[in-house]
């Protein structure tokens, strides 16, 4: 008797099985059964080792299990299949953050923010990585306020402070900065941070053969400059105002 041919699953059947396994694992994730979820994702990736949805989901699961290195590996594999996948970009940024590679993490959070500026997760990622970098490299302490001189009366001090206030006028750089904040909104803070980051001496040491952080930062600044110029052309009324007519609340309230 002729042997029965072994049934070979079609591509559609494999994709259906992968989706079912991922859905089951997603349900386990919701109830924090991460080990069971990981088992399901592993089964799905045995059927197709390059399935992007399964890779990204397993990356998230690995992070919740505290295995950031494996999470990064899955995120990079997913990006190898689809380099602009927004979920994979986010997972790589998160994995790098939990590995303590804050500068590289910041670059990928900015990359995601440029692609999808409406997503709050990328903005929160930028904020937390900026804080982590500042805590790591330290910031310059502010000079303490000088004590008032005892030889002058309070009235003289008040008159001097008033005269200094009236004499001080906003410079062109100040007006440019205010104008940039009007045009870019919250992104202006990111632009200023990246410009300062590019000047930091420790940034050169953070560059590697695979991830040139300086290049990413320069690209982000160039993108924001182009966006600022675009909005300047769209809204000519935001051109640099005369400092005499500048309202006191020109700065956004959130800054």
TrEMBL record:
Location, primary (coarse class):
cytoplasm
Tell me the domain of life.
Answer: Eukaryota
Q: What is the protein name stated in its UniProt record?
A: Outer dynein arm-docking complex subunit 4
The reply to whether Coiled coil figures as a keyword in the UniProt entry is yes
Entry keywords, A to Z: Cell projection, Coiled coil, Cytoplasm, Cytoskeleton, Repeat, TPR repeat
Asked whether the UniProt record includes Cytoplasm among its keywords, one would answer yes
Compartments where found: Cytoplasm, Cytoskeleton, Cilium axoneme
Native organism is Drosophila guanche (Fruit fly)
Q: Which residues form a coiled coil?
A: 65-92
Cellular component GO terms held in the UniProt record: axoneme
Q: Which Pfam families match?
A: ANAPC3 (PF12895)
SUPFAM superfamilies the record matches: TPR-like
The UniProt annotation puts the region (Disordered) at 133-176
**For this UniProt entry, which segments traverse the membrane?**
none
């Amino acid at each position: 008797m002729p042997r029965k041919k072994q049934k070979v699953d079609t591509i559609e059947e494999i994709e259906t099985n992968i989706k079912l396994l991922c859905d089951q694992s997603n349900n386990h994730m919701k109830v924090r059964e991460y080990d069971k979820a990981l088992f399901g994702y592993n089964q799905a990736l045995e059927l197709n080792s390059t399935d992007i949805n399964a890779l990204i989901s397993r990356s998230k699961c690995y992070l919740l299990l505290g295995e950031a290195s494996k999470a990064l590996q899955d995120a990079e594999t997913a990006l190898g299949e689809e380099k602009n996948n927004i979920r994979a970009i986010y997972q790589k940024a998160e994995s790098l953050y939990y590995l303590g590679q804050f500068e590289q993490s910041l670059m990928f959070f900015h990359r995601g923010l440029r692609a999808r500026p409406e997503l709050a997760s990328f903005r929160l990622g930028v904020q937390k990585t900026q804080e982590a970098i500042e805590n790591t490299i330290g910031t310059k302490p502010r000079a303490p306020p000088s004590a008032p001189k005892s030889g002058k009366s309070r009235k003289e001090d008040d008159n001097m402070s008033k005269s200094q206030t009236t004499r001080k006028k906003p410079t062109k750089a100040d007006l440019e900065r205010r104008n940039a904040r009007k045009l870019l909104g919250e992104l202006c803070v990111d632009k200023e941070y990246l410009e300062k980051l590019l000047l930091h001496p420790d940034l050169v040491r953070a560059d590697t053969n695979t991830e040139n952080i300086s290049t990413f930062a320069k690209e982000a600044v160039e993108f924001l400059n182009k966006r600022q110029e675009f909005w300047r052309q769209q809204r000519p009324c935001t051109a640099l105002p005369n400092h005499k007519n500048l309202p006191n609340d020109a700065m956004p309230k959130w800054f």
